[in-house]
Amino acid sequence: MARSKEFDENVVLDKAMKLFWEQGYAQTSMNDLVEHMGIHRRSLYDTFTDKHTLYLKALDRFGERITGRWASGIKGAGTAEDAMRFIFDFVIKGEDDSPPGCFFVNSAVELAHADKEVDAKTVDECAQTERILQNVVTRGQKSGEFSESGDPKALAEYLYIVITGLRVMTRTSTPEDKLFRIAEQSMQMLKR
User: Fold this and answer.
1) Is 25 domain-assigned?
2) What's the pLDDT at 186?
3) What is the average per-residue pLDDT within 79-93?
4) For residues 28 and 19, is the Cβ–Cβ distance under 8 A?
């Protein structure tokens, strides 16, 4: 008779996600994961197979989490400008319960060049984020908040690169006011 799990898979997956996000793949040992997740090594292997599979599942969990939070914030924004400001605020300030930066960006830098599965997930996340940004830009152009002079797809690609740079810089000692100045420059560019 199989034993039932004595833990919530999403709870322990969130713990693994945050540990990988803070330390990276290479610096996170199986002992670190077992200790941080609060489960037995055998349970980790039975549930997640191996470290690499756990990492990929943690990336998926992060993607679901961020997509949900962005969708909620954008939906709650009254205007396209408010939606874009929400995105910049979210990227710069992060969340109280999370490490700074972005787990996808960290993964792209550390592993995408050598790991096809991580590369595919980070490229997919990039495309999804660009679609979200393109929708916000298009909404702003239709409402007259943003200039119609730029192609929404090209602007979304540009904004994605700005956001990626901001995500990296939030992991450093760069002052937050500098990051907000950069975000404001992007907001002004959308209006020209």
Assistant:
1) no
2) 97
3) 98
4) yes
Quick check: 37 and 43 in contact, CB under 8 A?
A: no
Put simply, whether the predicted model's pTM sits higher than 0.85 gets the answer yes
Q: Which amino acid is at 28?
A: T
- Of the candidates 47, 129, 40, which has an alpha carbon nearest to the alpha carbon of residue 91? 129
Q: What is the dihedral of CA 86, 171, 65, 130, to 10 degrees?
A: 60
- What are phi and psi for residue 149, nearest 5 degrees? -75, -20
CA–CA distance from 52 to each of 48, 85, 145, 181 (Å)? 9, 35, 44, 38
Looking at residue 80, what is its pLDDT?
98
Residue 5 has pLDDT above 70, yes or no: no
Q: Which tokens is 77 given?
A: 């924004």
Number of domains present in the structure of the chain? 1
Query: Which of 25, 8, 12, 163 has the alpha carbon at shortest distance from 88?
Result: 163
Does residue 173 lie within any of the structural domains?
yes
Other Cβ atoms closer than 10 A to 94: 16
What's the token pair of residue 144? Answer: 């007259």
The verdict on residue 51 lying in a domain is no
102 within a domain of the structure (yes/no): yes
CATH number of the domain residue 140 falls in: 1.10.357.10
d(CA 178, CA 181): 5
Please, how many CA atoms are within 13 Å of residue 136, restricted to the half-sphere of its CB? 31
